[in-house]
What does this fold into?
Amino acid sequence: MKNSKIARHILMASAVFGFGTPALADVKDGVDAWGRGDYKAAVAEWRGPASAGDADAQFNMGQAYKLGRGVPMDLTQAEQFYKRAADQGHLQASDNYGLILFQNQRRKEALPYLQASANRGEPRAQYVLGTGHFNGDFVEKDWIRAYALMTRASAAGLPQATSNMAQMDKYIPLDKRRRAIELASQMEENEKRVRTAQVGGLRATPSSGAIQTAQLPASKAVAPVPTPAPKPVAPPSVATPPAPAPAKAPPLAKPAPAPAPAPVRTATTGNWRVQLGAFGDQNKAKALWNNLEKRVSALNNLQPYLVAAGSITRLQAGPFATKAQASKVCGSVKASGNDCIVKSR
It folds into this structure.
C-alpha cells in the first residue's frame, strides 16, 4: 500500500488530486515508460488499471488515443476515457472532455464542462467561451464577458486569445473594453477560490515523465472582415481576415453603435505600444493607468493592456500604427514625470 501511494504522487502534472479508486503501481510504471518514449509499454501498463476504474490511468489512456501514441489515434476512444475519468472528478479529464465535445460539434453537452473549466482558469475553455460570447452563436452575445474571458486566456499565454483580442478591438467600444478588464480581474480572483475548493489545497508534484495536456487540433478558422458588422470567429484559432466577404453570406447582427463624434483612436491595428510600468501587483498597474489617464491627455483615447509576464504585470497602452506615433505619446508621458518606453508587439 505504501508503494502505491508513492506511485500516485509522481503521476503526471496536475493529476494528483486524491481520487477514490486504489492507486496502482502499474500506473507509475506506465508513466515511466511514456517518459522513455516507449508508448506501447505505457499503454499496456495503463489498460488494466483503467478498466479497473483508476481515474489517472483512464486520463492517460485518453491522452494516448488523443495523441495517437502507443495506439492508433482515435478521438472516440479518447472521449470515452476522458469521460470515465471526468465522472470520477479528474479535473484535467473534465477539461479535455469538454473541449473534445465542442470540437465534435456537441456544443450543448460541452457547455457545462467548458464553463466549469473556465471558472477554474483553463485558458482554452476561456478562449472558446469568449469567442462564443462575442459571436452569440452557442451562448448569449455579451461583448464585455467575451473580452474579459479573452483577456484571461491571453494572460495565460494562449496566442490565439491575443490575436482574437486584436480582432475584438475593432468592434467593442472602449468603455466596454475597460469594464471587461475590471471583470477579468474579478474572474482571476474567483478562479483562485474555485481551484482551492476543488483540489482541496493540494499541489500536484509533476514528474519528468509527465504527460502534458495537448491542445485540440485547430478547426477551420474564420475571422472578422472589415465591415460594419463582425463576422463570427470560429474557435479555436483566428485566421487573417478574408476579403471580400462572400456575396451570399447570411446576415449578421450589427455591433452596438460607436459613440459620436469620431473613432476613439486612429491606430486600431498597429503593432506599437507604449509601456508605462511593470508591477508585481496588478492592482498597482491599474492604479497607475487611472492616474495617468487623468493627467496625460494623450492617453485618453488609448486602450490599456495588462500584459502578464510570469509574476510581473506590465502596463501598456496603444496600439499605434508607427513607432513615431508611440514615441510622441511617450514624450507626453515622460513630461508628466512618469517613465515610458516604446514597445513593438
In short: Residues 272-344 form a domain with the Alpha-Beta Plaits fold (CATH 3.30.70.1070). The two ends are 53 Å apart (CA to CA).
